[in-house]
Amino acid sequence: MIVFLNGRLVPEEQAVVSVFDRGFLYGDGLFEGVRIYNGHPFRWTQHLERFRAGADYLQLSLPFTPDELRAYAEQLIVQNRSPEGFVRLSLSRGVGPRGYSPRGADQPTLVMALHPAAPIDPQRPPQWSLFIASPRLPANERLATIKTSNKLPQIMAKAEAQAFGADEALLLNTDGHLAEAASSNLFWFEGTRVCTPPLATGILAGVTRAITLEICASLGWPVQEKIAGPATLLDASGVFLTVTTLEAVEAVRLDGKELHRSPQLEILRREYRRLVLAECGVATPA
């Protein structure tokens, strides 16, 4: 595998980072992931806008422009012969003096690497069981809207869900309200209405979440950003999650209890595939 590291394309064995890098020591950085279809990064601009906004908030210097990074990403796709996959960008503050203070750490580390992405079969779309994990996300937390490298709550939540036998962890915030899943945003149907927690509950502003809201608007579906408790999902007419690698994933169980299933989800999936086809020249793999 060829990897991008600080302006160079090198074999992964040579893509090494200092043990004194603050990303390794403190999680002092952020990351972004973009789905690749037919050799094209899907919604690159939206992903890089979020990446750049996060870097600005963390006062991290982004050493390349989004256009330069896209050119490097396209080189990675060609050199790795990976027209279908997922590219991850990681930015850390780099090496600096020991301690929490960021002063003196002025040479950021930027890495891009490609990963395989599971094909999505329209005849057998993904389904997940959910488990409400014990970690809580802070409500009204600005850092929650940034894809920082500090993901211990999500990691521990995922471990709890897997120990329970579930596919994904569902997290509540410190007010006990529905927030998001460990690696995805949460949606549910109330009749024809599509609901999702507002950003203020402490969730990441997912790009796939934004695309989903865009599709709902194009379909004329009513949408509500709603504060709710976990019992709401048991009464919902359908529950799903949005994630860059898998698009829309139906949730079929919560803590072992069966969830209702809505036919609207298939409509949403179909429109998502049409959008991918229009922008990348290929439909979701069949």
Topology overview:
Layout: E1 2-5, E2 8-11, H1 22-26, E3 29-37, E4 40-41, H2 44-57, H3 66-79, E5 85-92, E6 109-115, E7 127-137, H4 152-164, E8 168-173, E9 178-181, E10 185-190, E11 193-196, H5 207-219, E12 223-225, H6 231-235, E13 238-243, E14 247-254, E15 257-258, H7 264-280
Parallel strand pairs: 7-8, 7-14, 11-12
Antiparallel strand pairs: 1-2, 1-6, 3-4, 3-5, 5-6, 8-9, 10-11, 10-13, 13-14, 14-15
Provide a brief overview of the structure.
The chain is α+β, with helices and mostly antiparallel strands.
What does the model show?
It is built from seven helices and 15 strands. The protein has 286 residues and is α+β, with helices and mostly antiparallel strands. It folds into two domains: 2-115, Aminotransferase class 4, branched-chain amino acid transferase, N-terminal domain (D-amino Acid Aminotransferase, Chain A, domain 1), CATH 3.30.470; 127-280, D-amino Acid Aminotransferase, Chain A, domain 2 (Alpha-Beta Barrel), CATH 3.20.10.10. The strands form two sheets. Strands 7, 8, 9, 10, 11, 12, 13, 14 and 15 form a nine-stranded mixed beta sheet that branches. Strands 2-1-6-5-3-4 form a six-stranded antiparallel beta sheet. It is globular and about 55 Å long.
